Amino acid sequence: MKIVIVGGFGVGKTTMVGSISEIRPLSTEEVMTQAGTGVDDLRGVRDKRTTTAAFDFGRITVDATRVLYLFGAPGQKRFWFLWEQLFTGSLGAVVLVDTARVEDSWYAVDRLEHHGMPFVVAVNRFGPGPSLDRVRTALDLSDDVPLLECDARRRESSRDVLITLVHHLASSGRTTAKDPT
Fold it and tell me: Which of 23, 41, 111, 118 is the least buried, fewest Cβ under 10 Å from its Cβ?
């Protein structure tokens, strides 16, 4: 089962893939250079030194017949064109949110709703912030979209997000991928 992890720049997508993958994740992390100055919005992530240039890939075995293939999408606007290809064949998605930059998640939610792809929203807590109810309101999420907190650095927390997504997919009757076109 192909799962895409999307969200704003520096929200923890690479970290989530790395924390849960049973294999050494494929990462396209590159050192940020002066070329990104003025292009990438570093607001809220000033200490970030690397960035995903294509996607991250990891895998986790659910049971003898089910494997999740995880694709972490790049968060910068200039790489959003890759998302359409990553959505192809995906069963669902995780939207990671930083409550200090909730607006960075609007595009992800919009794209997933546009494609009719089931998703869950996981607030990657970096410290105190608004309640989940306030995040739901800020993202204009319907009540049927699961919303939970996580710490993408912790395997157990990332696992819980994926379990929530798999249950959401099962309850929505989504067992095969839908073509995003």
Answer: 23
